[in-house]
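hiii so my PI (J.) wants the whole complex modelled not just the main chain, which honestly fair. so below is everything: two entries, each one labled with what it is. i double checked the lines twice but i was tired so who knows lol
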Amino acid sequence: MSTQFAATVQKIEDNLGSVIRGKAESIRLVMISLLAGGHTLLEDAPGTGKTTLAKSLARSVDGVFRRIQFTPDLLPADITGGNIYNPKEGSFDFRPGPVFSNVLLADEINRTSPRTQSALLEVMSENQVTVDGKALTLPQPFFVIATQNPNEYHGTYPLPEAQLDRFTLSVTLGYPDTSHEVEMLFSQNERHPFTKLKSVVSCQEVIDLQEQVKAVRFDRAIAEYLVRLVEGTRKEPRLRLGISPRGSLALYRTAQARARVAGRDHVLPEDVRALAVPVLAHRMMLDTKAKYGGVRTQQLVEEIIGKIAVPR
Amino acid sequence: MAATGETAFWIRGVASSKEALARPPWPVTLSALIALLTMALTRRDAVLPVLAAISIIFSQLSSARLKPGSLKTWILRLLIYTGASLVVMANPPPVATTAAVAGQLIDLVMLLGMAELVVQFWQRALLGGTNAVLILLTGFVFVTASKSFVQRFMPWMTPLYVTALIFALHSIRPRAGKVRQSSMAWMRVLLILLALSIGFSSATFIYRYKKKIDRTGFEFVPAIQQAAQKTVGFSSSPVLGEVQSAEKSMTRILRVEGLNQYPRLRGIAFYDYVSGRWDPPAENRGYEALATGELNVKTLGPRLTITRLCEEPQLLFLPLHSAGLQIMQDGSLQRDTRGGSALLFRAPPPLVYSVVLSDTPRYQGPLCIAPDELTMLHCKDVPDTIYPEVWQLAKQIAGGERNPLKKVAAVEDYLQKNNAYSITTDPGAGDPVSNFLLQKKAAHCEYFASAAVILLRCMNIPSRYVTGFYAHESAGARVKIVRAQDAHAWAEAWIEATGWVTLDGTPPLGRPDVSSEPPGFWRKSAEWIMDTANSVLNALSSLSPWQYAGLSAVTVAAIAALFMRQRRAAKGKTVTIVRTAYTRPGEDLGELAAHFDGILYRKQIPCPPNMTWHEHLAAAGGPAPRGLDLEQARAFLNLYNDVRFGRPDDSAAIERLRAMLKVLER
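here's the output for the full assembly
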């Protein structure tokens, strides 16, 4: 079973790797998020392949894919769907929004108003939508990949803490290195590699993988270590907001996923340490002095990791 | 659920309730061996310290250990302590005085310290904690072994031990990872400088007060003869015996600066030869006080600046033909009443005095007072103990020559050619000088000088026996250093219308410039350090109280600024690792973890508690950091992690882990 798991994961990664060159680490993080049953936020400068990665992942899974291009005039009902009056029937018909999919690409998520962004809160945390008092469950698996450019301030609305907390991890792609960028140029000479992409895994397979991840053993000492790290963020004076229990859970689940991808049936402290920054950094809020003092949340997470003894 | 709260991590390493096998860092072992070597050298019986040293070396090679606090360890300790006590009690002092009993007690305490040191090396112990105890015990053994302060050992053993101690202290410093080490760099430098200063101050203290410490030490060691109450490098009452009266050593006596054509620096002259001894002794003479101006006949001319570096003798050494003397210190100058034979100035070292040399070799200055009638009688007296054959020999040497200067030259020439130099001799029965001359024996300078005086007196030329130093060792441009081994004896003859002339009958091979041992590199280096320190101390002693206060304030402010700067720089870098208790692994796994940590500690690559072992080994660098088999270590860690976090009940895997650890230990 372990071999099959690894083979399936490799298939997806190879598929993504054929489109996004030289970003194996980022692809692995996105896979871990998917296997942990969470959602991913891709943050980077424009043109680095965020949307391409999200679309490639969506295409790799043989499920329903929907895309929302966030604009300032977007409304919540454009995301969740709503009841539309049918004059012929004289009743209201529910028109599902793009969230009723297996893979949802929320492109430029910070370009819409907080009112619209908050439409995703219930969706991402509870996998359901409430419209006119009626709760509607979303299909499984359900995976949100959102993209945003963290450097642009014109016409953008920073994501609220509640929204950020619902993303399992945040991935930064970064610019490709020279050799890979050259490869990319030649690979897109005639047409984009994305056009040749096919799905390699079904939704059921993804659900099976997620179930296998849950079976990974998590030793109590490592759980205590994880909680110590999280507690460290709550006690850090330079943070206005530390990590929530949702964050602990996200780290827990992603550590399991990482262990499983590495072929292990148990989590190691290295798994928790390796995922601490991508899982925790985007959830923390710096206080004003730290924010304008040039402190970064990634740096704080690393400092906290350096202060906590590792279980052996 | 496994128990929590018992496992704690702190900066120096992992400590668990299961003690890990630990060997101390090699500098700690080295300092222990040096302390035991000191014990072997200064104690009459070297067997016990040698056995202890062998035991300690063996403990480093073996993996067998005693469990601290166990009954077995306590029984062994009791047996060793009892054995040490029996050894001391089996050798009671010949006379049970208070001092002798106290000496025995120190001996017992030293042996017990040695015994405890051995037990500690064999003990399985918590990492880090025992090293401090070991260093303390080595210090204890070294200090108690140094009680006799035997001169030939301590100038070498003290710096050797202090150097080993510095490395030992350095090796047990806290290691909390790279972050902490970088901020400790300056502290380490300061610590080493401080240790060097302490070591140097201790050595200086011992060196300066060696005589007092020797006296105190000798009181506790009745077997050691206290006969060596010799004036350093000089004899206050020369006796013609088997060896030279003066104690020859490398101790520095004088520093002579200036161009000097007179290598012989006279200290005191003797007139009366009585049964192989020259009288009167320096301490039995009458001295009269002089104003320093009385000896300043000339103030212009070639000048020597002489610094007396020793506490004894308190004579002033200067060439015979000195025209002036100036002493750069307040005090009482005294001259013996026997006509300028000796100048005494009591002052602690360093004493600086300036000598103006005469511009002619025959100048008879303030030291060359013509002998009065009584002194003349003494200068001509040939005692009855001199054999009649010596008179004949003198006549033969004179050969009918009438010119006294030529007679002096003839005597000098005869002695240099007919008797060989030897540091030891056999005085024989009867008169030693007569035997020396008539049997043409080989002897040292005291015999040559005595023989010259007697022969000249036989020729009716007044003469006297002079002791002093022969300056020859160059220590820079126009600088000479005089050591105790440069002590020399010669004769001075009174020639009418000429004055006192020097006659040195010792063959050139026996003169100090040929026969003295040159100082070695280490001695010169140590002397340079001491001179530099002394000059700094002298400069400091000349400061006024206000200047002292100002200098102290500046020093304190500089040190404070340095520390504050370092603290500011280290503020962001210093990491305090949180002590955390986690759910413990099983007992076996805990032991394995502590054992592996012990291996890393002994390889001097201890893993900081805020890193995983894999991360640490990856950061340690190189394929085999400090000799650790990296492949084997990683294999161990992979299996350990599998068991620890995956299947803690896998006993077969635990056994495999034990076997892997044994391989790693090799």
